């Protein structure tokens, strides 16, 4: 099977060449707690920014917290603010996903890039996720607190509607899941009124965009939590469709020459049509982006490893823990690559598609924020047609857990995610 060595940053040359003129590059990960995935994504992102003029990074994180990173790298935080101060805003479980030293190094580099004299390509950093219902409502209220009119009235009505549920989105969802009275109309009205305000604000105002995005989060989070309580895979689709809507808005906001780097789990990045997710009626942002912008404009990169260690939790909301990742199970994609030699490898899908063995579903490891190494024999794997799901794959034979900050969580009961191995 053809592959390329992956030993240092220079070995990424062939990947950058293969990416070509793609407008959207998605960088996956097989877990949310592996240092090397963050390190290689950082190396690729730097080269995309410096060599191909990419405009922003958007990640599988909450919009309000990521927007604080955006302000920091653009020099809008108060003097003396440190990167660790900013990343400690990521206090919703799992805090380690973005509150870690690997991300701190990336954020410091982004700030240094934006601070360079005569820099014309100011990089942004944004969150694509949908969980931040109460944080987004609070941000909207703060934005509108000095303003009068229908937008403020609509925001107050939305806030009032959610108040009885003690800032717990799952309590809200359980209360309204099977009744006709909910807060859907209130959040939609708030979004509409904020959209009308844009006409009176300066063009390309990031403050306006931020407020509108928080309103969009509130609308889709309300839908997400209701769908989650009702069960099935519909909440997954609400979430990834929100991510795609946010990506579309960011590209439009940054103009026709905007180019996006996306950091998410493989289960979001890799085209769902070439996994067993399709049979369950599930879509993801990788699939949706290919369908909207064309495969030639969207480059999907997967990651995986054979063994090592990872940061994860034993249950939802459990303390983070360094866990062993055992050798990949027999017959899996990762075990196959390991059998070719215990070296890191870069694979390009265009070189694999004519190989018969590559045209079948192969078990491909996926570790979520909740992980049990003892399930390796029967879980933690997604059947995948590798060269169709991705355009490239970075295989790292042995990996280490990332280095998290210690951050106190603010939610006792984090939202569930579906499927469990994301």
From TrEMBL:
Keywords: Methyltransferase, Transferase. The keyword 4Fe-4S does not apply. Transmembrane segments: none annotated. The keyword Lyase does not apply. It comes from the Bacteria. One of its GO terms (biological process) is response to antibiotic. InterPro entries: Emycin_Estase, Hydrolase/PRTase-associated, UCP036794_erythomycin. This is Protein-L-isoaspartate O-methyltransferase. It comes from Rufibacter radiotolerans.
